[in-house]
Amino acid sequence: MNTESRHDNYLRGALLIMLSAFCFACMNVCVRLAGDIPSVQKSFFRNLVAAVFAGAVIIKNHVPLRVEKEARLSLAMRCIAGTAGILCNFYAVDHLLVADASILNKLSPFFAVLFSYFLLKEKISPFQAACVAAAFCGCLFIVKPGFHNTAMMPALIGVCGGLGAGFAYTMVRKLGTMGVKGPLIVFYFSLFSCLIVVPWIALHAVAMSGRQTAVLLLAGLCAAGGQFSITAAYTYAPAKKISIYDYSQILFAAVLGFVLFDEVPDAFSFFGYALVIAASFVMFLYNRSREKQAQAKS
């Protein structure tokens, strides 16, 4: 791939990941607006809409449903990890500030970098590792671990959501390099996420008002936009090059949380945000510098 093509793919990936960040911020707000409904039930509606949209795209574009044998394990791992990540994230959104839940979920790019190193053999330098460590320090300021912190458990579950999402996006990257189409990845993931919670829904579903149903369908619509965007983004470029743009969701989430819920994070959370975003920005600059040096040598 020539330099111009790499640059075009990088720009596409960056724009798509910012679009996904806005969509997911809106999704989190809708999840909160839906009110006192179990997180599992909320996740069902979120994934149902995404599955319908992905299915429509597959039918329209005549995309074969068959997945090559060598890609099936990666697709299954993407489905399982992504589902776990969604359930954890929705629980965190229901029990934390929207901005706090969003930043914890946005640890996913750091996890994606780590998983890409171990699973895809994409190199990570000591400097990049230090940035990951700084991000986790920022996470501690948000989680504020302690026996008297009633929000610690939801925060730790939020971290697990970021872990699941990071692993899932690593599998998306791998599937993209194997030629699996984005709509197919979204479809199988969304369908799996719906089917896996059906037994729970059958036993524990809570009756919803028309407004709650509409809000959850809107959450699903936002999620579908975010899922398609981020799936496409990670097929255009590796996580270490474009993950910085995913943090625009924190700005969207903070503004929406303040406007709609009068949420103002405390000083520790703001310091944690600053650490995570600064670590992301520094790693982004480092990766860009290394890329330019490699291009100069070639």
Mean pLDDT: 83
- What order do the helices and strands follow? HHHHHHHHHHHH
User: Could you give a short account of the major beta sheet?
Assistant: none
Question: Low-confidence spans: pLDDT under 50, at least 5 residues?
Answer: none
How many beta-strand segments?
Answer: 0
As a percent range, the share of strand residues is under 5%
Q: What would you call the structural class?
A: mainly alpha
Shape from CA axes? globular
Our measurement of the CA-to-CA distance between the termini, rounded to an integer number of angstroms, reads 13 Å
SSE blueprint and pairings:
Elements: H1 3-33, H2 39-61, H3 69-95, H4 98-105, H5 108-119, H6 126-143, H7 152-177, H8 182-204, H9 210-236, H10 239-242, H11 248-261, H12 267-297
Overview features:
298 residues; single chain; mainly alpha; globular
Polypeptide structure, described:
- The structure is a single chain.
- With 298 residues, this protein is mainly alpha-helical.
- The chain contains twelve helices and no strands.
- It has helices at residues 3-33, 39-61, 69-95, 98-105, 108-119, 126-143, 152-177, 182-204, 210-236, 239-242, 248-261, 267-297.
- Helix 2 (39-61) runs antiparallel to helix 8 (182-204).
- The radius of gyration is 19 Å and the shape is globular.
- The two termini are 13 Å apart.
